[in-house]
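User: My collaborator sent over this chain with a note saying "see what the structure looks like." That's all I know about it. Can you take a look?
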Amino acid sequence: MQIKSWRGLLSLFVLSLLLCSCSPKSLKIGVALPLSGNSTSRGQEILNAVLLAVEEINQQGGIQSQPVEIELADDRDLPERAQIAAQELVDKKVIAVIGHYSSDATLAALPIYQQAGIPLISPSVTLTHVPYEGQYFFRTVGNNKQQAIRVKEMIQSLDYQRIALVHNSSQYAKDLINQVESQLQGLPLQIKRHDETEAEAMLQDFANFQPEIIFYAGGFRSAAPLLQRFRDAGIHGDFMGSNTLHDPEFVRLAGLRYVKQSWVLSNTEQGPDFRKRYQQRFGAPGPFSFSAYQAALLLMQSAQVSPNLKANELLKQLKRLAKGFQKPAARETQAFDIKQVNSKGEFIDWHYRAPLAQKLGKTLGIQAQNLLKPVSKAPPQNSK
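Assistant: Without extra context I'll predict from the sequence alone. Here is the result:
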């Protein structure tokens, strides 16, 4: 009886070993995002797109016959928490990480990945210069210089003369405003710049200056009440925001009557096929959904063609594929579109078409603004 019991245990042990050897080992990728706090909605839209890509690749057999598994870390969009999240993912032996959402969180976490030899792929960080880019840091979104080029194009096409630049305290926002100022250098413009924390001084300055357009770099949660304060203070210039304002919540928080004559930059639109698949699974995609999906594809395609899944080989493939992942023939400005907020509060494509006698009308309008109370310029034509 005792021998039978021992043999039975041995048989079960051998069977369990066979089952383990037949079960494919999973391939772990890290995802570090804000899944709590003020940036939760951004984190969720990025995570959803990564999940979609992972589901699709697993349905096709995974990476080198291994299913892909996501290791998730909540960084709350805080630099100190981002460092903790990064170390958690390194300890879990992930082959690479997709994230973080903001530039501040990314810069805090990046040295930890670099020291561990683990690549970080961002779908959202547009900071112009990021350490280790092309070595340990990769991205599937444009940068702030490309955003600034689009801002300059719009300012020139609508012949604005008095420009106000406003930013929050983030490294992203300061860098973007620096890039806009750099692009506008040498043009015959009047420019005023303020940090949004200088609220009273800024309102007084702008009330006297009466900018024809205000460009804001920062988050939509702070942009909405700031825009309300401008309008209530009699500052009626047009308003334009960075790509972080491309969110229905910006319109909802600001209110329709305040967002008239408003534009935002937007990451270049995703194809209809992706939009359909994302919508069927998660609902309407957000502005960073497609770049997050691209980040996951870039990582998994690099892993698929890697001779082995060791860090140094994966990095070689990432460096090779990242260069051509976005359209190589695309102009710099094509990394971002311009959206206008229509009367229904929807974001629609905006393309400038010069009206007849624009220069004359513009000159008369500026003179009228100087002689009378400030008025907003006539809306430009646009098409969907």
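A starting point for your reply to your collaborator: The first helix runs from residue 2 to 22.
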